Amino acid sequence: MRSSSSLQLLWVVFGVLFVSCDAFASNEVSALNTLKEGIYEDPLAVLSTWNTVDSDPCDWSGITCSEARDHVIKINISGSSLKGFLTPELGQLSSLQELILHGNNLIGVIPKEIGSLKNLKVLDLGMNRLTGPIPPEIGDLTSIVKINLESNGLSGRLPPELGNLRHLEELRLDRNRLEGTVPGSNSSNFVSNINGMYASSRNVTGLCRSSQFKVADFSYNFFVGSIPKCLAYLPRTSFQGNCLQDTAPRQRSTAQCAVPPPAKSHPGVGPKHQPTLDGLKHQDTSKPAWLLALEIVTGTMVGSLCIIALLTALQRCKSKSSIIIPWKKSASEKEHMQVYIDSEMLKDVFRFSRQELEVACEDFSNIIGSSPDSLVYKGTMKGGPEIAVISLCIKEEHWMGFLELYFQKEVADLARLNHENTGKLLGYCQESSPFTRMLVFEYASNGTLYEHLHCKLSFFSVTVVCINVFQ
């Protein structure tokens, strides 16, 4: 009888362990896998151990688990040259205490879901290429002690919700494109102490509600107005390179802060370290191959055709399914797919409707080039130029949110190019029902499809590494 009871107890223990491991695998490991999917280039292979098939996530590089090995408490993948996006699923890592991705090449926006990490103490995303505003949800990080967002391309105003962070000791926002005022307080109820000043009243707002900063840096942005009194104890160098009403030197002119200029190089690079043209070209070559060609398209549209074909080929490596022509596809079942983008990204790029392109290209019958994964049409706009339309043939369910973000970013960059050897982008087409992604170029008649398609094959042979993102 006693032996039977012991056996039952043993099964209960094993059952509890199984449930714990299963819960860990279904939630946090899934979030880690999604983070890996958002990385399109891993030159140092730091994520090569991230394999859920035959390994324990607690043994993955850059991952630290709790003592019970049932939760992820730290991610530290700094200085690894990762190129990719922050995925919103990071918000599922409820026990995470430190997220350190400093010194990579991450692009896109900071997902608002990061605000769900109530146990997070360190958020270090400095020295990347993140854009867009700082999400106000960051004010929900009630345990946060350190935030480092330096040297990115962040824009917009500082959310006053930063003042909710009562334990915040270090805030680094220098070398971004932030604007507006530093959210402090108009209250004069501040009491001096040995370290600086602290608020003596609850009727304060913004950063004055935060704890005493040990380190704070707002330099080299586009802030205007005055320095809040509650932050007057900080060194003047913490505010230089702005348009603040301050007698300290090295402030920008007021005109410079009226309209912050667009980032033309690696975000966060100071004026003394602007890259040369050669440096920019070198930087471009590190981008994913399927988008690199959007930036180096030849005099014909076929360079872009090859690259779009590569994109869809990569997608097909994951899905192993047939390709569907976008305008023949019914509305997607993924009606609520969330895509995190900068709403201002394509504001200056003309957007065509699928209907007008269908008319211009004679009901999409005038095909001048094709590959297994994309089609090129020739058309004539009413009263306008001849055009070449590159259409992606891909299922919407395989069009991930981070691909949408990067697609839009590169369309915006391509629209700014103006070179004699570069096909001029006239606009794009982006519709959800039916799912459509098209690029519209000015038609160039020099060269044949066959010649340009085949002369570039050797270039694409070096891009096989990109396939890893879909494995």
TrEMBL record:
UniProt domain Leucine-rich repeat-containing N-terminal plant-type: residue ranges: 26-66
Cellular location(s): Endomembrane system
GO molecular function, one term: protein kinase activity
Xref: Pfam families: LRR_8, LRRNT_2, PK_Tyr_Ser-Thr
Signal sequence region: 1-23
Keywords of this entry: ATP-binding, Glycoprotein, Leucine-rich repeat, Membrane, Nucleotide-binding, Receptor, Repeat, Signal, Transmembrane, Transmembrane helix
SUPFAM superfamilies the UniProt entry points to: L domain-like, Protein kinase-like (PK-like)
Serine-threonine/tyrosine-protein kinase catalytic domain sequence ranges: 366-456
Membrane topology classification: Single-pass type I membrane protein
Location, primary (coarse class): membrane
GO cellular component, one term: endomembrane system
Transmembrane segments: 290-314
Gene3D superfamilies cross-referenced by the UniProt entry: Phosphorylase Kinase, domain 1 (3.30.200.20), Ribonuclease Inhibitor (3.80.10.10)
InterPro entries found in the cross-reference section: Kinase-like_dom_sf (IPR011009), Leu-rich_rpt (IPR001611), Leu-rich_rpt_typical-subtyp (IPR003591), LRR_dom_sf (IPR032675), LRR_N_plant-typ (IPR013210), Ser-Thr/Tyr_kinase_cat_dom (IPR001245)
Name this protein carries in UniProt: Uncharacterized protein
